[in-house]
Design a protein that fits this description.
Blueprint: H1 3-20, H2 24-31, H3 35-42, H4 51-61, H5 67-74, H6 83-91, H7 97-112
Helix pairs in contact: 1-5, 2-3
Length: 113
């Protein structure tokens, strides 16, 4: 693939990573990769990443398998649904207003920690 696809992937990874981890080092630890490897990915420096590396990035970012490749072509990874969030979403219509307020407060508390 032309380098533009790798640059696009790198930007997407960097943008997604920055929304969840403050630093590339934290993301690298979460993904089980080296910081220099994450830097290579985010800056589109290479195009010969092992499939295990690509899978680690997809998993850490919550992308569906094959999303790294799709992101190079279309710029849009497919995100996996979080099963715990789906449980909350399914239960939401049946929850009382008090239960909804409690869940919202817990979510906000989690954002502060």
């Amino acid at each position: 693939m032309a380098n533009g696809g790798w640059k696009r992937r790198g930007r997407l990874v960097r943008d997604e990573r920055a929304g969840r981890w403050r630093t590339a080092k934290e993301f690298a630890a979460a993904a089980g990769l080296s910081e220099s490897l994450v830097d290579d990915i985010e800056n589109g420096r290479r195009d010969n990443f092992k499939s295990s590396t690509v899978e680690a990035v997809e998993t850490a970012l919550g992308w569906a398998p094959g999303s790294f490749e799709r992101a190079g072509r279309s710029g849009h990874p497919e995100r996996l649904a979080d099963p715990e969030f789906e449980r909350v979403r399914a239960a939401w219509p049946q929850l009382s207003i008090d239960a909804r307020r409690i869940l919202a407060a817990l979510a906000e508390l989690g954002l502060r920690n």
